[in-house]
Amino acid sequence: MANHLNGYIDSEFDKSIKLLNAMSADVALRELLARVVTLSVEALKRGNKLLFAGNGGSAADAQHWAGELVSRFNFDRPGLAAIALTTDTSILTAIGNDYGYDYVFARQVEALGRSGDLLFAISTSGNSKNIVRAIKAARDAGIGVIGFTGQGGGAMAELCDVCFRMPSGETPKIQEGHEFLGHLICGLIEYEMFTDAKG
Question: Does 110 carry a binding-site annotation?
Fold first, then answer.
C-alpha cells in the first residue's frame, strides 16, 4: 500500500484512539451515562417511549439505536418502545412541503410525543434547526431531552437535560463518539430493564 495511504490510515486510527481514551477518562461522562440510562429505564417502565431524531449520518444513528431497542442488543428479551423520527418518507416530505424542513421533527414530536417520553436529539454541530425546533417542541410537551453534539455543544447545550459533547471538532470523529455512546446506552438500558434475562 502506498505510504500516503498508510499515513492517512495511521492518522485516523490515532484520532479515534485519542477520542475514545478522552471519553473513557471523563468521569462526568460516566455520570451522565448513568443518568440517561436511569431516565430511560424509568420512562420505559412507566409505559413511555424513547424518540430519536438526527440529520444525515445522525439520522442513521437515530434509526440504528431505535432498532437496537425495539429488536435486541445483547440478548433476547421483549421489545422496547423506541421510535426513529427519521424513517417515514411520507411524513417527512409532507411536513417539509407544508411547513418547511426545519419542522420535520418538531411536528412529529407534537403528534407522537407524550409527557414523560424522552427525545434523543443528535446534531454534530448542536445547531441543526430542525433538531433545535424538535427540542423546543419536546420541552413544551413535558418530554425530556438527551442531546448528542460536538465539542462546543452549539444551541443544544443549554436546551437539553443531558448533553453529550464529544471531545472533537471533526464531524466524522464526533459521529464515531456518538455511535459508541449509543451502543453503550442501548446495552445498559437492556441490561437494567431485564435483570432476569442477563447472561
Answer: no
Q: Is 98 annotated as a binding residue?
A: yes
Lookup: cell for 173:
470523529
The predicted pLDDT at position 1 comes to 63
Sheet with 118-122, side-by-side order of all strands: 82-84, 50-54, 118-122, 144-149, 162-165
Question: Which of 3.90.76.10, 3.40.50.10490, 1.10.3210.10, 3.40.1790.10 is the CATH number of 3-197?
Answer: 3.40.50.10490
Does the annotation list 64 as a binding residue?
Answer: yes
pLDDT score recorded for residue 3: 79
- Is 175 annotated as ligand-binding? yes
Q: In sequence order, which residues have a C-beta less than 8 Å from that of residue 9 and are 6 or more positions away?
A: none
